[in-house]
Amino acid sequence: MEKIFERLMYCMRWVLAPIYIGMSLALIALACKFFQEAFHILPHVFELSESDLILAVLSMIDMGLVGGLIVMVMFSGYENFVSSLDIAKNTEKLAWLGKLDTGSLKNKVAASIVAISSIHLLRIFMEIQEVANDKLIWYVVIHLTFVLSALVMAVIDKMHREGHEGL
After folding, report:
1. Spans in the chain with pLDDT lower than 50
2. Where are the transmembrane segments (predicted)?
3. Model-level pTM?
4. What is the CA radius of gyration of the chain?
């Protein structure tokens, strides 16, 4: 009975596979939104003010960072929790593939969130005259919370790794 239960539990990891496929659909949706933004901006590039163009480009950079985050979580999550990817030797392989454990992935996700938050905060500073002071303070507090959280997670991960080096 125990053997059956353990085998069933082990097979349940495949329930995550559709979630990673769903992430690829989210990546496609994000790419569509990216190109929608690009096609919206390009015809008006000479009419836009410099700050409006910078805001649009920052928005596109934001989408690129989120896309990279989706790819990282999708591939490393699949490799860590479902099954290793069988990639032919003559095809291009991402350098980090198979090297991101859950701790490293968590730190990369936190760093990506900080980068995305930084871009969002920069966009707000570009339009600072239109933002109420109390809202601005909350944006900065939330961003600093992300930064502090990422820093604490990195320190804890470093302490954890150093603690296991002696074993």
Report:
1. none
2. 12-32, 53-75, 109-125, 137-156
3. 0.76
4. 21
